[in-house]
């Protein structure tokens, strides 16, 4: 919590341990924080030098008599927190100023790079070769997006593990990035992938399906795009091109928008689903089947993706039609949309 303000993990442990006590010694805090007494003593001295804590000096405490009859023994120094609103405010201001300077430098460097790159055709396209380099540049584009991400999903991942992709997707959605994806329908191969995609859609990702797509692609803020190359062109090693502002980038954005306009939405189950049949409400499993069918999957394909038999899929669809009081699947889709099942 406090590392962003310049405190290390050990310093934060001591600081938060002292937060719940009026005052404490290094020995007290060592027991509470799990650090050594000597380490706590050094940390307290450093925090005191930075104005985050105040030492109650030995001279201000009544000396305790030595049980052995020798000289009086001074008790260990105790410390108390300086009010956080006073002590932490300068650190927060310092971090804000550093971030502002970094943003200013980033803007200048970006503009300088664009100006220089625009002078040569080679500045439009950057070739990236190797698993690590491709993965690094891909995650840079996703994590650096501030406004919008446009993605084509085709086939299995070759350079970036799906777990890393899921993490960067979640981060983008949490930042409020407008995240739109067009997926080749064959991309949804397997119940696990279908479930992951539906969870992402429920979290705010906008997804549509296409019968086929010409390439994989990610476009970040309409300022950069990344397109994988055929692995045979790099001796079997994953490679990609990063496209900077140019007519080529504009064409890639237009390609995405065309596929997006023609794509079919990926339906997800709504709040009307229940785990067990109840009255006129469908179960989550039934709506899971309906969502895939409305996406354009055949009964056989839906059964395969969900690990069911075709007869089970047909039985669930029949029950949904009975609940809706309709005679066709077209009417079922209309009813599901009207009542908010999907």
**Spatial shape:** extended
Give the neighbour order of strands across the main sheet: 4-10-9-8-5-6-7-11
Biggest sheet: strands, sense, closure?
A: 8 strands, mixed
- Element pattern in H and E: HEHHEEHEHEHEHEEEEHEHHHH
Q: How helix-rich are the residues, as a percent range?
A: 40-55%
- Summed over residues and divided by their number, the pLDDT gives a mean of 77
Count of helical regions: 12
Strand content: 5-15%
How many individual β-strands?
11
The poorly predicted ranges are 59-64, 270-277
- C-alpha Rg (nearest Å): 30 Å
Gap between N and C termini: 39 Å
Secondary structure class reads alpha+beta
Structure notes:
The protein is α+β, with helices and mostly antiparallel strands and 342 residues long. Helices cover 49% and strands 14% of the residues. The protein is built from 12 helices and 11 strands. It has helices at 9-19, 26-33, 37-49, 84-117, 131-144, 162-174, 191-202, 247-262, 284-295, 299-306, 310-324, 329-339; strands at 24-25, 53-56, 78-81, 125-129, 148-153, 178-184, 206-210, 217-220, 224-228, 239-243, 264-265. It has an 8-stranded mixed sheet, sandwiched between helices. A 3-stranded antiparallel sheet has the order 1-3-2. α2 (26-33) packs across α3 (37-49) and α9 packs across α11 (310-324). It is extended. It starts with 8 loop residues before the first helix and ends with a helix. The model is unreliable at 59-64 and 270-277 (pLDDT under 50).
Please describe the topology of this protein.
Elements: H1 9-19, E1 24-25, H2 26-33, H3 37-49, E2 53-56, E3 78-81, H4 84-117, E4 125-129, H5 131-144, E5 148-153, H6 162-174, E6 178-184, H7 191-202, E7 206-210, E8 217-220, E9 224-228, E10 239-243, H8 247-262, E11 264-265, H9 284-295, H10 299-306, H11 310-324, H12 329-339
Parallel strand pairs: 5-6, 6-7
Antiparallel strand pairs: 1-3, 2-3, 4-10, 5-8, 7-11, 8-9, 9-10
Helix pairs in contact: 1-2, 1-3, 2-3, 9-10, 9-11, 10-11, 11-12
């Amino acid at each position: 919590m406090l590392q962003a303000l310049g405190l290390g993990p050990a310093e934060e442990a001591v600081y938060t341990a002292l937060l719940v006590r009026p005052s404490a010694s290094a020995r007290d805090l060592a027991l509470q924080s799990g650090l050594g007494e000597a380490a706590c003593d050094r940390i307290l001295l450093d925090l005191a030098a930075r104005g985050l804590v105040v030492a109650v000096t030995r001279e201000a405490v009544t000396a305790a008599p030595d049980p052995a009859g020798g000289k009086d023994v001074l008790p260990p120094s105790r410390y108390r927190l300086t009010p956080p609103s006073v002590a932490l405010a300068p650190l927060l201001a310092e971090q804000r100023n550093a971030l502002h300077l970094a943003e200013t430098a980033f803007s200048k460097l970006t503009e300088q790079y664009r100006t220089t790159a625009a002078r040569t055709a080679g500045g439009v396209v950057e070739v990236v070769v190797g698993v690590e380099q491709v993965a690094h540049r891909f995650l840079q584009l996703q994590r650096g997006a501030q406004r919008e991400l446009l993605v084509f999903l085709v086939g299995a991942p070759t350079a970036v593990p799906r777990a890393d992709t899921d993490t960067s997707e979640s981060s983008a959605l949490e930042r409020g990035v407008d995240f739109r994806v067009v997926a080749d329908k064959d991309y949804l191969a397997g119940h696990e992938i279908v479930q992951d995609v539906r969870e992402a859609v429920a979290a705010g990702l906008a997804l549509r399906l296409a019968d086929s797509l010409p390439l994989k692609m990610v476009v970040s803020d309409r300022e950069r795009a990344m397109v994988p190359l055929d692995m045979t062109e790099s001796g079997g090693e994953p490679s990609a091109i990063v496209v900077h502002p140019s007519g080529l980038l504009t064409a890639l954005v237009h390609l995405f928008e065309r596929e997006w306009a023609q794509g079919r939405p990926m339906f997800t189950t709504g709040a009307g689903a229940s785990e067990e049949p109840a009255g006129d409400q469908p179960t989550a499993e039934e709506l899971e089947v309906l969502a895939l069918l409305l996406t354009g999957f055949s009964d056989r394909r839906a059964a395969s993706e969900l690990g069911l038999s075709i007869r089970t899929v047909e039985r669930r669809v029949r029950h949904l039609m009975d609940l809706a009081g309709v005679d066709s699947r077209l009417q079922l889709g209309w009813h599901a949309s009207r009542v908010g099942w999907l």
